[in-house]
Write a structure and sequence with these properties.
about 45% helix; alpha+beta; 10 helices; Beta-lactamase
Amino acid sequence: MIQVKNRDLDTYKQENSWRNFQSGSIIEKKKKNIFSKFKKTTALFLILLILIAGVLLVKPLLFDNQKTLQKSNDNTVESQTHIEEPIYLSKTQLNSIINKIDFITTDKNIFFVDTPEESYKITTSIDVNLQEFLLSKMDRLKTLTRGKPQRIAIVVMEADTGKIIAMTGFDLADSNSNPCLDSDYPAASIFKIITASAAVQSLNYNPGTQLYFNGNKYTLYKRQLKDVKNKYTYKISFSRAFAESVNPVFGKIGKNYLGRDRLDSFANAFGFNKNVDFELPFISGSFKTDDKKYHLAELGCGFNNDTTISPIFGAMLTSAIVNSGNMMLPGIVEHVTNSDGTIIYKNEKTEYVSAIEPATADIMVKLMQQTISKGTAKKTFRGTSRDKVLSKLIIGGKTGSLYDKKHIVKYDWFTGFGKDNKTEKTIALSIVVGHRKYIGTRAPTYAKMILKQHFKL
């Protein structure tokens, strides 16, 4: 029995020892498998971390390189753009280039000017045909021994754009001057355009408004400025007073009805006392009032030597009338190109001032037409209705005449317009002739010549 038990015990120990070994072995194997898997997972994780870190490190470098390259390209483009960008001329710079061009004697409309810095091509708005026509008239005048003017200036411009299409003249006292830009001419009755506009707009005058005066229509005495009506008093319509340029009527309007403030206001509205920003700068005109009542009458009708205008400004006054009150800034240069053919200056249509209301301008157009049909220019334009060219136009204007202070030169004015009935193309004219001892061709006659020559083409 004892032997059997010992054998069973040994057997049990042996079997139990094997089981324990097997169990430990399995556990150990599992541990090894788990560790092996952990090692692989850790390795993969580390590799992933390395890859991510690499991407994070490399990407900024690539981005920086790309930015640097882009910046380099931008700098290159910017540099190229800066080199190719043209330098545009201001009017002041342009004036220094073209001030040597003698526009009043030229028969061309394109000029080439070389400077140490650049070569320029100047394209102007000059109408060669009209300019040549006027130059031939000036050449003939210079040969005269009788009737040759001391000074003459003619300006023709497109009324709606301000483009100068013809400009010529001469001054015997100064052969180097441009008489079209000089502003020392007495405005004379041309100032009645401003006085009449003020009366229409601020006093509600219309062409049929009845007015009264005593004495001669072309004189201006203090007694003529009294508001009296007697058997010597003349009754006249506003349109007729303008057309016939009746001094006492406009003297009374200036002194008795408008007064100093209104005259000042409308003169400023039309652009008096200003430097005009033209490619060839000039002064518009001069107008000053004082406290003397009689002087207000002189100013209102233009019967004085204090109020002055330049011929080119005379054309501007007319442009305001035909453009519903908007005065255009004149221009003679269309554009300028440099040696590469790049446009570096281009003239743009520009309004100078808004002088009067459109309704006022409409009435003023009718008044200026009366000057041609029934007024001071009637004799010159007689037969217009039978003329093949002039009969197709609407023509208006204002005349004026006055001696200089020394009573040597008599200035003779015409400012006006011609408008084609069909195309509505309109030009503004300004002509002043400074006659000496013998009166030659008058300003309205030149106006008629210009209208016929320009519109027949």
